[in-house]
Amino acid sequence: MTPRGDGDTPGLTQRSESPYQSVVSDALFRPVRSGNAFEDTVARLLQTIRLGIVAPGEALPSERDLAGRFAVSRDTVREAIRELAEAGYLASRRGRYGGTFVVDPVPVPAPTAEPIDPTDIEDILGLREILELGAVRGAAARTLSATDRELLWSRLRDATESTVEDYRRVDSRLHLTIGELVGTPSLVSLLADNRTRVNELLDRIPLLAANIAHSNQQHEAIVLAILTGDADGAAAAMREHLDGSSALLRGFLS
């Protein structure tokens, strides 16, 4: 793990002012289904980690906060955190800057040889196109505040400067931020769920350096179109971007 904190636990930072109140985090830190409270809590926490909502080295909200957001007992949250700690995703630290932290680096899911039904791939990618094209059009149509614009630039910069190991996490965060700027919380929930399924497919194929460079160029075109209010241009750039990753997924997995 890469040291990032000021304590003696590697890969952990002190609790920071993470944007837990954003539309994206609210979409993930929402009540779970009561019938499978433990399993859904684990899945939701994993989703926040893998989509980069809580970044490597950052602290989760407190157990009390998580229990309130997920509408489950603190015992359920505590058990979910314990299981994820044993699986290597979380670590706890006591003291002034204590809490439960996402490990750095985040474990990479083990590859699986289980085949994927081609109809499932088309379902995931088809829904992605509908959601992502709608998101960029909606974001470009809005009058964005200075804070919104800076957030979008920041997410783009993170993706451009990312290491290969972090790329899928920061890429996911950029796409979710675009959805957040639309101002429709339900859209962000759908985007996050779909992006989780997309990432499960992406984890099965190699990261290609040329594709990362091309994606970064496309990301810049998308962001510039949003910032200039060009909805058609944003949609065209996003479609090209989605077509590229879809072609790779179909090529490797179909």
What does this entry look like structurally?
It contains 10 helices and 2 strands; from the N terminus they run H-H-H-H-E-E-H-H-H-H-H-H. The chain has 254 residues and is mainly α. It has 2 domains: 23-102, Orthogonal Bundle (Arc Repressor Mutant, subunit A); 118-253, Four Helix Bundle (Hemerythrin (Met), subunit A) (Up-down Bundle). A two-stranded antiparallel sheet has the order 1-2. Helix 5 crosses helix 7 (167-182) and helix 6 (146-161) runs antiparallel to helix 7. The protein is globular and about 50 Å long. 33% of the residues are buried.
Offer a few descriptive terms.
Four Helix Bundle (Hemerythrin (Met), subunit A); 10 helices; disordered N terminus; two-stranded antiparallel ribbon; 2 domains; Arc Repressor Mutant, subunit A; 254 residues; mainly alpha
The count of strands amounts to 2
Q: Could you state the CATH homologous superfamily of the largest domain?
A: GntR ligand-binding domain-like
The CATH architecture name of the largest domain reads Up-down Bundle
Lateral strand order in the biggest sheet: 1-2
Q: Please give the count of helices.
A: 10
State the helicity in percent bands.
Answer: 55-70%
Strand content: under 5%
CATH C-level name of the largest domain:
Mainly Alpha
How many strands, which pairing sense, and closed or not: the largest β-sheet? 2 strands, antiparallel
Question: Uncertain runs with pLDDT below 50, 5 residues or more?
Answer: 1-21
Return the structural class. Answer: mainly alpha
Radius of gyration equals 18 Å
Shape: globular
